[in-house]
Amino acid sequence: MNTTFKKSLLLLVMIVSIVACGGKQEGSNTDSSDQETGGKSKHKNEKIAVNKTAKVFAIGKGEADVKVTSVTMDFFPEGKVVLLGDDKQVVRFELEITNNNDDEFSFNNTTLRLNTNTEKDKTLAIIINKSNANDILESAKIAKGKSIKGAMYYEVPTSVTLKDMTLVFKGYDEKMQAKNIEIPFAQ
Q1: Over the stretch 39-79, which tens digit does the pLDDT of each residue have?
Q2: What's the structural domain count of the chain?
Q3: Alpha carbon distance 85, 33 (integer Å)
Q4: Which among 5, 70, 85, 90 would be 20 to 30 A from 135, CA to CA?
Q5: Confidence band of 132 (pLDDT split at 50, 70, 90)
Q6: Residue 19 maps to a domain
Q7: Which CATH number is 95's domain given?
């Protein structure tokens, strides 16, 4: 190879390296939408302590308590990239499910939905997953007297406030009739 070609190749590699390093660095909390805020996330991560409990039933498998211990409005996982529209926010619900029955309780996280003043029957936000959150409440069989803890994430419009939301468990009542058990947050 001639010297001119080697120098050109080296220059090209250096330019590609500089351009690649100029993007988001791993572990920082900035993305392209945060550039106008000086590198600080514009998301509030406003955690609100709540104490809401509902008794839920599973057909043939007894009862459990679904307890919401906190709600984080405008949640954004620190140091992660989440593609979220300007008019959207992620709401994080911290939950504890306790089996109060003598039998095993089968919990399926798809039975928890979110209703807001603008949308009904919201399912889990797919933009929050194991790559950017390690506390997602998983479906599980809960032994007698045991509990599981975790978080559920929903994507909603930025205009939605805590009082506009109702967490809904699609389950059964004590008579084993299909029923939506609601946990409202309106004060």
Answers
A1: 344 557 888 888 888 877 765 566 788 999 999 998 877 66
A2: 1
A3: 9
A4: 85
A5: low
A6: no
A7: 2.60.40.1240
